[in-house]
Amino acid sequence: MKPFGYLRPTSVAEAVRAGAGHPGARFLGGGTNLVDLMKLGVESPGLLVDVSRLPLDRMTRTDDGGLRIGATVRNSDLAAHPDVRSGYPALSQALLAGASGQLRNTATTGGNLLQRTRCPYFQDVSKPCNKRVPGSGCPAREGAHRDLAVLGHSQDCVATNPSDMAVALAALDATVQLHGPEGERTVPVTDFHRLPGDNPDQDTVIRPGELITEVVLPPPPDGSVSLYRKARDRASYAFALASVAAVLSVRDGRVDRVSLAFGGLAHRPWRARVAEDLLRGVPTTGDAFARAVDAELDAARPLRDNAFKVGLARRMAVGALVELTSRAVPA
Ligand SMILES: Cc1cc2nc3c(=O)[nH]c(=O)nc-3n(C[C@H](O)[C@H](O)[C@H](O)COP(=O)(O)OP(=O)(O)OC[C@H]3O[C@@H](n4cnc5c(N)ncnc54)[C@H](O)[C@@H]3O)c2cc1C
Ligand code: SF4
After folding, report:
1. pLDDT of 27-48, one tens digit each?
2. Confidence of residue 23 (pLDDT cuts 50, 70, 90)
3. How far apart are the C-alpha atoms of 173 and 67, rounded to whole Å?
4. Beta strand 47-50 with 175-180: parallel, antiparallel or unpaired?
5. CA 166 from chain center: how many Å?
6. 285, 293 in Cβ contact below 8 A?
7. Residues 228, 244: contact at Cβ < 8 Å?
């Protein structure tokens, strides 16, 4: 590991000043991803700005009944919070489906959103990788890509976003609050992560020196139920091959409100807008769900070894909607 500076600011303003003042600076949340990447030589920041002691570790209700989650709230605390378990079960389930108890006790909300892809070439500095070294190539496209993207990928990168939490936040219409050298701004989680295009080195729309200060959840829609399901190679401690977060409310036997997001399929949590548009107002039958999900997954462009993900995601999404229908409170 290369030598680096270390700062532990006590205010957001001080953290942003430090981050913006050093081009090679990185914010340090729980360190469970960043420090691993430093050990591998993938990241070599000149300065670590440790944000874990900033006053961003609280969760509070918003005036309209939503939830404000500080960026340094630990994944375990977020998953266990009574307001999350009762109002946003998909989020609690997504967090608990990720990593291990020890990691979740350390990992933070901000760090989870910004964790890097687990593409094996990205993590191996002896191999080319456009995300790590722009212009060096993408060996995954012809190489080991069983775990990688089927939707929204490009010639230059076929990586997936690894976060379970972000998929639930995308389905729940959460927003990210950012504080940077030019002030504050709010970005919907669905617009926060990028598709790779021809510059896959940019995972998100975050600007240099910007700090995530909080994530805000709107109030859960009246009468809605939600869930998160994840398929992986092992029962625990593995990233998603495919995952789905769904929020549903039913009125008179028809879909009233629905949101659906996939994980493990793309460079970002994939909000299934095509399926959602087709689902609104349809009878809550397996056939209607399957037609809508098929229309969404029509956009899939699997690679040589990962076509299985499309069928897997389809079965998971239809199963999730059927299960939620059986639990929905009839309105
Ligand atoms: C063995 C293993 C298995 C795992 N399995 C899963 C899994 O199944 N599902 C899953 O979702 N995750 C999994 N993870 C990933 C884990 O959830 C992430 O490492 C963790 O959430 C990152 O949070 P952190 O606070 O430790 O981030 P850090 O490592 O501190 O930071 C990650 C990135 O975020 C930046 N950052 C941190 N906080 C902020 C902030 N407030 N503002 C701006 N930038 C910030 C850092 O600069 C860095 O670039 C696994 C990790 C390991 C090691
Ligand atoms: S898929 Fe993306 S992260 Fe993986 S080798 Fe290709 S460019 Fe790098």
Report:
1. 999 999 999 999 999 999 999 9
2. confident
3. 12
4. unpaired
5. 2
6. no
7. yes
In this prediction, residues 217-224 reach a mean pLDDT of 95
What distances in angstroms separate CA 25 from CA 46, 47, 200, one per listed residue?
6, 4, 20
Contacts of 133 (CB under 8 A, 6+ apart): none
Q: Which of 100, 109, 115 to mutate to test the pocket of ligand 1 (most atoms within 8 A of CB)?
A: 115
Distance, CA of 290 to CA of 177 (rounded, Å): 35
Cα–Cα distances (Å) from 31 to 45, 58, 106, in that order, read 13, 19, 8
Residue owning tokens 């990233």: 239
Judge contact between 293 and 318, C-beta under 8 A.
yes
Amino acid at 82: P
Residue that has been written with the tokens 């489906």 in this structure: 97
Kindly list the protein residues whose Cβ atom lies closer than 6 A to any atom of ligand 2: 117, 119, 121-122, 129-131, 138-140, 148, 157-159, 200
* Residue given tokens 């002896």 in the structure block: 126
Enter the tokens of residue 281.
């107002």
Question: Which residue's entry shows tokens 């229309």?
Answer: 295
Q: Which CB contacts under 8 angstroms, 24+ apart, belong to 56-62? A: 56/12, 56/110, 56/213, 56/214, 59/83, 62/216, 62/219
pLDDT the model gives residue 237: 86
Of 241, 252, 260, 277, the closest CA to residue 319 belongs to 260
Q: What's the rounded mean pLDDT across residues 66-92? A: 98
Decide: 325 and 283 in contact? Cβ < 8 Å: no
